[in-house]
Write a structure and sequence with these properties.
Elements lengths: L7 E6 L14 H16 L3 E6 L7 H6 L4 H25 L4 E5 L8 E2 L2 H9 L3 E5 L9 H11 L4 E6 L4 E2 L11 E2 L1 E3 H6 L7 H9 L4 E5 L5 H6 L6 E4 L2
Parallel strand pairs: 1-2, 1-6, 2-5, 3-4, 3-5, 6-10, 9-11
Antiparallel strand pairs: 7-8, 10-11
The structure holds guanosine-5'-triphosphate.
Amino acid sequence: MTKMICKRILLKLSGEALMSEAGGSLDATIVNRLENEVKDLCEAGVEVGLVIGGGNILRGAEKSSQGMDRVTSDQMGMLATIINALAMQDSLEKKGLQARVMSALKIDEVCEDYIRRKAVRHLEKGRVVIFSAGIGNPFFTTDTAASLRAIEINAELLIKATKVKGVYSADPEKDKNAKFYSKLTYDEALDQRLNVMDATALVLCRDNNLPMRIMNIFEPGAVMRLMQGEELGSLIEKG
Ligand code: GTP
């Protein structure tokens, strides 16, 4: 079996990226393919934590800009991530994987509370752990939740899924001269305000020395190729 570059990863997927054309729900074809890829990773011995956003259902920041109280809209956004996590848990289990949704908000009739030591135990037993409800507090993004959970569970790599190849100096869909970065430091991403993740998430990763890979995981097989050692997307590390 090919050796994997690391044992434990956290994969951050945005709800919007997984959204079906019709809006709202997750795109079954994309989700199905990603789940098969997660299964391949688990079978190769990789321990996988997942964070899925809720933007396909509701974006807290957007509601807030439309006049809704920010705390309420962020709490609605957190609930949206639980809905996506439950959907993912169900379909991962239908593929024969074991999955556990853990929530940062107490909703224990529906899923387990997030307890770090329990999450690590699940991972060690080969279960996919889906971290939901962000960090349980308003004003924090799911990117920040992904960074925090990755650090807490001692993931060796945080992978953030995007629809483009990686990090660019400008939006490559709007600017043909946008420069692609195959490697950069957290400080460069912060100083140049590159549209990677919010500053809180970046600073958490920088200060805890967690490498992050920004990559297009909509390319079939990309995560597995990365795990087998191929240089894909952009790597952000401490300088
Ligand atoms: P171990 O036995 O520790 O290996 O883990 P396990 O998750 O298989 O066992 P556990 O008895 O903790 O859980 C059995 C099932 O109940 C699993 O599907 C869990 O996700 C679920 N479960 C555990 N705790 C809770 C909870 O607080 N709320 C909900 N809704 N489900 C839970």
